[in-house]
Amino acid sequence: MAVTESYVHKDVIRKEQCTKGGLITMSALIKLLLLASKTHDRRLREEGVMDFVGENVWVIIQNHLSFIRLPQAGDEVSVKTWVKGFNRILVERGYSLMSGNEVLVEATICFGLINFQTRKIQRMKADLLRLCFPCAVEIRVKKPAFPPLPGLSEGKKMSYLVGEEQIDHNGHMNNVVYIDWAFEQLGESFIKSHTLKNLKVVYRREYHLGDQSEVYTRKEGVETNDVTSQHFFMAGEELHAYLVLQWKKKKEGKNEGQVFVPCD
């Protein structure tokens, strides 16, 4: 396929990208996916395909990752990325992380284009996007559905203050921090006894330096082998992000030393 349709990034998972148990961290995994799409974007711009970006920046609006198996230190992997769909608000990218012929992780990430100064979403011209991504599908613009917000007495609540180390180059809190906070609320005992199978997060508003966040967590199916944890990231009465994690309970004694943690 031509570079305008897809791009493949090859890499080797390094020890410093992994936990003590040898599995890649969430932070390193997402950085690996984004490195592939960033390189693809740069090549597209060099070809004059994405001149419309200008001085604006891409930000993640929604993440959806499915885990078959997490790569480990020493694994030779490839990340294929391509533009799946678009509309005037967002561009939807697909990712496939593989080791040889084995698919390890599949992901869909939706990006919006914002003005760095005003922080406002920039609408894109559909006819221009059709020329840029002829193999992509034009998708309908729709607002993401959010479940009812939790009451103050529901589930578990923790408060956080956004610090300098959590701000990324786009001037807002890094996307991985949301997952880090969710894992912290679930606790080490739960994470050690469960395997993460699916992750979906929708970002509604940004957090900036000094913002106060209240995170509400509730779990469903805790008495079964399949557990869903929901995480609501609030500031006062405003919802900033909604994260859903789907877990599979580990068989007793299996992979107890291999714990998937979100950050480095």
UniProtKB/TrEMBL annotation:
Residues 158-248 form the Acyl-ACP thioesterase-like C-terminal domain. It holds the Pfam family Acyl-ACP_TE. The keyword Transferase does not apply. Gene3D superfamilies: Hotdog Thioesterase. Keywords: Fatty acid biosynthesis, Fatty acid metabolism, Hydrolase, Lipid biosynthesis, Lipid metabolism, Transit peptide. Residues 22-129 form the Acyl-ACP thioesterase N-terminal hotdog domain. GO terms for molecular function: acyl carrier activity; fatty acyl-[ACP] hydrolase activity. Belongs to the acyl-ACP thioesterase family. This is Acyl-ACP thioesterase.
